[in-house]
Every structure is written in structure tokens, then in C-alpha cells.
Write a structure and sequence with these properties.
Largest sheet: 4 strands, mixed
Oligomer: single chain
Strand content: 15-25%
Bound molecules: zinc ion
Distance between the termini: 24 Å
Helix content: 10-25%
Length: 189
Amino acid sequence: MIASSSEYLPLEKCPALVLNADYRPLSYYPLSLWSWQDAVRDVFLDRVNIVSTYDREIRSPSFSMKLPSVISLKHFVKPSEFPNFTRFNVFLRDKFTCLYCGDKKNLTFDHVVPKSLGGLTTWENVATACSPCNVRKGGKMPKACGMIPSVQPYKPTEEQLHRNGRHFPPNFLHESWLDYLYWDVKLEP
Ligand SMILES: [Zn+2]
């Protein structure tokens, strides 16, 4: 859903998208969002520039300001090359698809080398799997049960996740964020 500007948005629906000093989002997964309080605080501490605003204002007797919808850091922060190992990011790496049968429903996680046989909970050993496949595979090794993941699980870079992320945008996107997210979509054939 893309939300447009409104003077009447509840304050908690007014997070600010945080960009690095190079105007790329500070992080994609999760998307770098700050609460309006944090954004306003850092505006006053002179740590960020306001790039775009909501129509929503905050007021006190002596002061009023439109809430920032996009801010950029004044000092560049080196982005991490690798995204966090999270449930969402594993699903995103695997495009929300079971790596055994290709189903997109009832998704869960499978340890390719079962935990009971020493398999670790790591990027390289955790695959997105539908519940039926997960149950069918149980505690067996891939070759023993003929269930080989269609893609060998791997540790993705931010760039690889970002490529998939364009197909699975967050639930809430403010219109002013679109210039800084997914700008490369149009360049794809
Ligand atoms: Zn499956």
C-alpha cells in the first residue's frame, strides 16, 4: 500500500525513512525507519538533513514543523555488506518459495543437514520449505530421502536480497520514499 500525504495521519504512522549521506537507504532489510520522535530529535541535534516531509505538523505554542518523511545522515556510515540472518531475510533470499517443491504456501524452515545430525542454524544450512516438505524430509539427509534443495542455501549480500526485495515491498510505503527505494526497477527489462 502506498500512503499519500495527509494532515491527519496519526503520529505513529509517520516514520521517517533514513538515508545514508549518499542518499541510499541506511538499510533495506529491515528498512531503516525511525519514529517521528527520533527523527525530530536528530534534526534538532543537527545530525540529519530533512529531505522530504509529511503534511502532518507538530505544534507547540512557540513552534511548528512538518514531520520529516525522509531524512539523510550528515555523515556517511559504512553500510554492512551482509544482511542480518533473520527469518524474513531467509524467506526473501528464497523468494518466499519452498526450495524442495516450489510451493509458496505454509512456509517454514528446514535444516538441510538435520539438527539431529549436527546441522547448524546458518545461512548455508537453512532452507525455506513448505510444511509438508519439512515433515516429509524429517531428520533425514538430503540424499537419503531424495530431497535436494533446488538452490544450495547461501549467505546473501545486501545486493542479492535487494534484487529479490523489489518483488516483496514492505506493507507501508509513503509516496515520498519511492524516489529512494526501488529506483532501479525501471532499468530492468
Ligand atoms: Zn515443499
